[in-house]
Amino acid sequence: LRHTYITNLLYAGVDPKTVQYLAGHENSKTTMDIYAKVKYNKPEELFGVVNGAFHQPVAE
Q1: What is the pLDDT of residue 57?
Q2: Which terminus of the chain faces fewer neighbouring Cβ atoms within 10 Å, N or C?
């Protein structure tokens, strides 16, 4: 569940430093290298995610 929790936070747009804090890790390298999992394995799935990210309004 820990891996899923951390991965879902990251994919929900929570910044890595906040996820690091919530996970209780000393640094974000642990969070990103060990716990964050690749959610999209097929290139066509990834393209949709990246394309969607560029069409999001920028927060002010």
Answers
A1: 66
A2: C
Structural domain that includes position 33: 2-53
Cα dihedral 44, 49, 52, 53, rounded to 10, equals -140
Domains held by the chain: number? 1
pLDDT at 19: 93
User: Could you give the CA distance from residue 40 to residue 8 in angstroms, rounded to a whole number?
Assistant: 12
Distances (CA, A) of 40 to 11, 23, 25, 44: 11, 22, 25, 9
pTM beyond 0.70: no
Instruction: Note whether residue 38 is domain-resident.
Output: yes
